[in-house]
Write a structure and sequence with these properties.
single chain; alpha/beta; Rossmann fold; OB fold (Dihydrolipoamide Acetyltransferase, E2P); seven-stranded parallel β-sheet; 21 helices; binds 5'-O-[(L-methionyl)-sulphamoyl]adenosine
């Protein structure tokens, strides 16, 4: 996101499907956008933040049917659930759009009509493969094992129907020119390169209507073809302009083009290829940035209901506090990379970063100012004694804005924590209690005031991430966080005036144990019987696991996954076994070929990311690294271990 010359910012989340209730992936995207929107307002940009729900399409029609509800009834229910959750999470959206809203439907029909009249939409026959879960079309050679969706791994179905097509192929060159000219139009860079190579392979025209179901926006009256409804992605993408009044009262169109569409990596193709092509067809400017974040997984696996490993954001927020949760999500994972959700990591962040580094500092300032100066602070001597500390902090604070514009929220937070480290270290270095004993009251006052000033600045910068918490911190120093205080304390670098501090309750009580029952699938009853209370197993139970040495014959990265590598492993059997392993972060596929590993050979085959996996390899893991367990010397493939 770049600072807009016209002082406006338009930030969007994807609109969420209403086939199911929100999970932490949805919460993550929304928290990122909320942080960007709050930051934009803080620095004085006129901001419009859009979120909403995507309510048409076969997936939702089927989900509603399964529950014996009408599509609209079901969409109303789940859309409300999303809206209520975002309200509970203090998400500061300016508009919540629903694709069943009448103004949206009219705007979409108008856009379709314009594209049609321009000759960019034509009628033909569609024959191919469709994934209902992704609401996406695929060619035969894109499928995995000739059947499964390359994006989500679910089976696709064959569709043969009459359809209107959008001339996507016509926009191939213009798209490539856009990627070339606008360096940051798609972020992060690695993902942009994937988009470019996809387009370079050649774009096929896109089927933009369906006839096999009815839950969708009808074609415009002027086209008069009532058997067709619009393809859900055409309908959905247009929300970014219909929300601004496109096709109706266009008052809000002043916000277009969007500064940033934040999306998950799985839907980048729709946003970075289809959407700009639609906009080109409509003669509208293109968004400034499309930023794709990674996926949250559990134990490196995709979350899914069937695995019972879905993390419910509401549950996490209720247990740990919504702002702590928000801090964790934004701090833990670099933008664009996948992250594994664990309560332990969340608790570590709360106890260490929030409680120790930040909460304690607020307590210490209150404690010291109370004990020595009756809660008074005075900044008049801060520069005299602690100019270096002020300058060091300022240098870091000056670098923060760029991190926001580059979507590197984790670095932004890291920077803020470096500033807190300067504050914490200056207390241990200068020991105000010693200064008081030595009668250097001026220096001790300057130090307590230095820390107060640092905390005031940190609270302003942290406000977009933790609004309520930082409001409490700024109340200690008698100011409200808004664009005025931003100008005063950040832009003009004024110091706090002489004042009495206000006491507040401790901000982050330490968390001693996991507060949510782990969302792992429960151990089945029969398995439980076998286990003794202390986790000890018998030798027979151990030998139920067949461990073998395997030789890796082939290794390739799995497209679309940041973690997975697909291996062909010789276990001394008729043919090699295919094993999917979450080791991409630690190993290069090329380096694995012709090396040996230890394999659990009698595991029930599973489908991981759409790929069959017929075993599991053994590895040792700590927080930072993972190492494959290997035999000491080369041994025959298939040799048993035990
Ligand atoms: N309706 C479409 C978007 C249309 S936008 C014009 C859609 N909806 S979704 O509900 O399936 O997903 C919405 C967002 O949630 C996507 O950005 C997706 O990447 C994100 N996530 C879904 N699961 C996720 C994780 N496990 N982790 C992180 N985000 C993921 O796609």
């Amino acid at each position: 996101m770049r600072k807009n010359k016209c002082k406006k910012a338009y930030i969007t989340t994807p609109i969420y499907y209403v086939n199911d209730i929100p999970h932490i992936g949805h919460a993550y995207t929304t928290m990122i956008c909320d942080t960007l929107a709050r930051y934009s307002r803080l620095i004085g940009l006129e901001t419009f933040f859009l979120t909403g729900t995507d309510e048409h399409g076969q997936k939702i029609e089927e989900a509603a049917k399964k529950r014996g509800k009408s599509s609209k009834q079901y969409a109303d229910e789940i859309s409300n659930y999303f809206k209520n959750l975002w309200d509970e999470f203090d998400i500061s959206y300016d508009k919540f759009i629903r694709t069943t809203d009448e103004y949206h439907q009219k705007g979409v029909q108008k856009a379709f009509e314009i594209m049609f009249k321009k000759g960019d939409i034509y009628k033909d026959m569609y024959e191919g493969h469709y994934c209902i879960s992704c609401e996406s079309f695929f060619t035969q050679n894109q499928l995995i094992d000739n059947e499964y969706c390359p994006d989500c791994g679910k089976p696709t179905s064959i569709v043969k129907e009459e359809s209107y097509f959008f001339k996507l192929s016509k926009y191939e060159d213009r798209l490539l020119k856009w990627y070339k000219e606008k360096e940051n139009c798609v972020l992060p860079k690695g993902k942009k390169n994937e988009v470019i190579s996809f387009v370079k392979q050649g774009l096929k025209d896109l089927s933009v209507t369906r006839t096999s179901f009815s839950w969708g926006i009808k074609l415009p009256k002027s086209i008069d073809d009532p058997t067709h409804v619009m393809y859900v992605w055409l309908d959905a993408l247009l929300n970014y302009i219909t929300a601004l009044g496109y096709g109706a009262d266009e008052k809000l169109m002043k916000f277009w083009p969007a500064n940033v569409h934040v999306v998950g990596k799985d839907i980048l193709r729709f946003h970075a290829i289809y959407w700009p092509a639609f906009l080109m067809s409509l003669d509208l400017p293109l968004p400034k940035h499309i930023a794709a974040h990674g996926w949250w997984t559990r134990n490196s696996e995709k979350m899914s209901k069937s695995k019972g490993n879905v993390v419910n954001p509401k549950e996490v927020a209720n247990a740990y506090g919504v702002e702590n949760f928000r801090y964790f999500m934004l701090r833990e994972v670099p933008f664009g990379q996948d992250g594994d959700f664990s309560q332990k990591a969340l608790i570590d962040r709360i106890n260490s970063d929030l409680s120790n580094d930040l909460g304690n500092l607020v307590n210490r300032v209150l404690g010291m100012s109370g004990k020595y100066f009756d809660f008074e602070i005075d900044s008049k001597n801060v520069q005299k004694y602690y100019q270096k500390e002020l300058d060091d902090c300022q240098k870091i604070l000056d670098s923060l804005q760029q991190y926001i514009f580059d979507m590197q929220l984790n670095k932004y937070l890291e920077g803020l924590w470096k500033v807190l480290t300067i504050a914490n270290q200056s207390i241990s270095t200068y020991e105000p209690w010693v200064k008081m004993k030595e009668g250097k009251n001026d220096e001790a006052m300057a130090l307590v005031s230095l820390i107060s000033n640092i905390l005031a600045k940190v609270s302003i910068f942290l406000h977009p991430v933790m609004p309520k918490t930082t409001d409490k911190i700024s109340s200690v120093f008698n100011f409200t966080i808004d664009n005025n205080s931003y100008k005063k304390y950040i832009e003009n670098q004024e110091l706090l005036e002489k004042m009495k501090l206000n006491k507040i309750d401790p901000l982050f009580p330490k968390i001693e144990k996991m507060l949510i029952k782990s969302p792992e699938p429960e151990v089945k009853k029969e398995d439980k019987k076998e286990q003794s209370n202390d986790g000890i197993i018998t030798i027979d139970q151990f030998f139920q696991t067949k461990l073998k040495v395997g030789t890796i014959l082939e290794a390739v990265n799995i497209k679309g996954s940041d973690k997975l590598i697909k291996l062909q492993v010789d276990l001394g059997e008729d043919k090699p076994r295919q094993i999917v392993a979450g080791i991409k972060e630690f190993y290069n596929p090329q380096d694995l070929i012709n090396t040996q590993i230890c394999v659990v050979a009698n595991l029930k085959p599973a489908k991981i990311f759409g790929n069959k996996s017929e075993g599991m390899l053994l590895a040792a893991k700590d927080k930072k690294s993972l190492m494959l367990i290997r035999p000491e010397k080369f041994i025959k493939s298939g040799s048993s271990i035990g």
